[in-house]
Amino acid sequence: MERIQKIIAQSGYCSRRKAEELIKKGLVTINGNVITEMGYKASFNDYIEVEGNSIMDKQDKVYYLLNKPRGVITSTKDDKGRKTVVDLIDDNRRIYPVGRLDYDTTGLIIITNDGELANLLMHPKNNIDKVYIAKIEGLITKGNLKTLESGVIIDGKKTSKSKAKVLKMDKKNNTSVVELTIHEGRNHQVKNMFKALGYNVIKLKREKISFLTDESLPSGTYRQLSIHEVKKLYNETKMVS
Ligand code: URA
Predict the structure, then answer these.
(1) What is the pTM of this model?
(2) Which fold has domain 2-54?
(3) CA–centroid distance, residue 240 to ligand 1 (Å)
(4) Nearest residue CA, atom 3 of ligand 1?
(5) In 3D, which of 2, 1, 10 has the Cα closest to residue 227?
(6) Were both Cys, which of 27, 86, 167, 198 would link to 177 (CB 3.0–4.6 Å)?
(7) C-alpha 175 to ligand 1 mean position (Å)
(8) pLDDT tens over the chain, length 241 residues
(9) CB-based burial of residue 17 (10 Å sphere; 0-12 exposed, 13-18 middle, 19+ buried)?
(10) CATH class given for the domain over 129-209
């Protein structure tokens, strides 16, 4: 048995504080009865509605958006005892990252126990945009930006179409900053795309996954996705299937 506001927050519908407000307003029902008592306890077997929406189907599912810092591996455990993205999240359920970011890459990663969503997001046919900011050695040329966009050969296979935009060119230090939007998730894909054109990536950050951005999510912190965001992610994958 758990306090009702905790169950609602764990479902990802809203924060615990917001849940308390909704309880006070009489907008939460358990098995059809309005509950306004703050400490009321329920179990995962009770039928809970918030503002008329059932939270049952999502009750055992959890979705986090983590802004991964450098020096953390994208895995659930590590033989070498290094910190994993799952270690950064205060949740004892069997959660796992959707896709991968390299040890030295920073930025957004979704962590969940919803295998269906994880598979949909990772499947390249679903065209989920991932936006990376890469700082590279050298000054990128217009021609190479075009080549990045039309596809480069990695391990004998051409990458699919992407979008590439120069954000900065530093002639003095001989570096460029490029925004690259891709929807595949091959191993070390961004680094390998630049490498194929002779550029070394010095720094890499994932700034956006579909409509999710890192705004107000400092490095090393995380937040739960709301039910609305989860629904939107499902819808994004359905738009093309
Ligand atoms: N591409 C890379 O090369 N590395 C990452 O971490 C993510 C995408």
Answers:
(1) 0.77
(2) 3.10.290
(3) 24
(4) 188
(5) 10
(6) 167
(7) 19
(8) 789 998 888 777 888 899 999 999 999 999 889 999 988 998 766 788 999 888 866 557 889 999 999 999 999 888 899 999 999 999 877 789 999 999 999 999 999 988 888 888 988 788 899 999 999 999 999 999 999 999 999 999 999 999 999 999 999 999 999 999 999 989 999 999 999 999 999 999 999 999 999 988 999 999 999 989 999 999 998 765 4
(9) exposed
(10) alpha beta
Q: How far apart are the CA of 232 and the centre of ligand 1, in A?
A: 25
Q: In terms of CATH architecture, what is 63-123+212-240?
A: 2-Layer Sandwich (3.30)
Domain ranges of the chain: 2-54, 63-123+212-240, 129-209
List, by residue number, the catalytic residues: 102
Q: Closest Cα to atom 2, ligand 1: which residue?
A: 188
Instruction: Write the DSSP symbol of residue 139.
Output: P
Amino acid at 28: V
**Fold match between domain 63-123+212-240 and domain 129-209:** yes
- Compute the CA torsion angle 113, 117, 119, 120 (nearest 10 deg): -170
Let me know: does 106 contact 129? Beta carbons within 8 Å: no
